[in-house]
Amino acid sequence: MALFDKEAIENYKYAEELFELVQIKLKSTKFTKKSNTYFFILKGLLKCGFCGRTMYGHGIATLVLCEALGMTGDDLLRKPCRDAVRFIEAAQDLHGGGWRYLPRGDSDLSVSGWQIQALKAAHLTGLNIKGVDEALDKAMTFLHWIRGPNGGYGYNGPSDSYSLTGTGILC
After folding, report:
1. What is the CA radius of gyration of the chain?
2. How many CB atoms within 10 Å of residue 163?
3. pLDDT at residue 112, as a whole number
4. 143: closest CA among 81, 77, 99, 94?
5. Could you give the 3-state DSSP secondary structure of residue 1?
6. Under DSSP, is residue 147 helix (H, G, I), strand (E, B) or coil?
7. Along the chain (171 residues), what's the average pLDDT of each consecutive run of 10 residues?
8. Does residue 28 contact residue 42 with C-beta atoms inside 8 Å?
9. Residue 86 CA to chain centroid, in angstroms?
10. Per-position DSSP letters for 95-131, written without gaps between them
């Protein structure tokens, strides 16, 4: 699912304000070293405490960046999108195919759903980032594995969780 549509953003009442907000947030982008990895943080974009410092928040921030690039086509957003997507690829669970709160951990659907949506949005931007399709293929393997007996989806194993089935279907 892609949220961007150039015609819709041009007709959107607050399009200018949204664009200015994205530009302000990009100027405050910082890279910090943690666990031999670089966490991409859009300062102030995610004010949800723990979520803003984990893969959960990174997936949401990357989705926002990619959607903003798709809406505006602004070249300023290309490098941050590429960097954020490359980090998602590098953080993927090597065995399970999904993501967890910290890079290269095991997989769960609540975190993986955001990464999958961010990768899909990145794919639709036309940036042609090497590795996106492969990361999505691995993620689909994870989704197939956690699918429950009645068609639902589980958190980190096969089950039919009401709360996560919507995420599984969306992905």
Report:
1. 16
2. 11
3. 98
4. 99
5. coil
6. strand
7. 45 53 56 34 46 75 84 80 90 94 91 97 92 96 97 96 94 92
8. yes
9. 11
10. TTSSB-SSTT---BHHHHHHHHHHHHHHHHHT---TT
Which residues lie below 8 Å from residue 57, measured CB to CB, with a gap of 6+?
Answer: 41, 46, 48, 51
Q: pTM value?
A: 0.76
What is the sign of the dihedral through the CA atoms of 97, 102, 105 and 110?
negative
Amino acid letter for position 11: N
Nearest to 98 by CA among 113, 84, 85: 113
- Residue 5 amino acid letter: D
- Taking phi over 0 as left and psi of -120 to 50 as alpha, with beta for the rest, 43 belongs to beta
Copy the structure tokens of residue 160: 């039919």
Place of tokens 């200015």: 20
How far apart are the C-alpha atoms of 119 and 154, rounded to whole Å? 21
Are 28 and 43 a contacting pair, CB within 8 Å? Answer: yes
Closest CA to 23 of 77, 83, 63, 70: 77
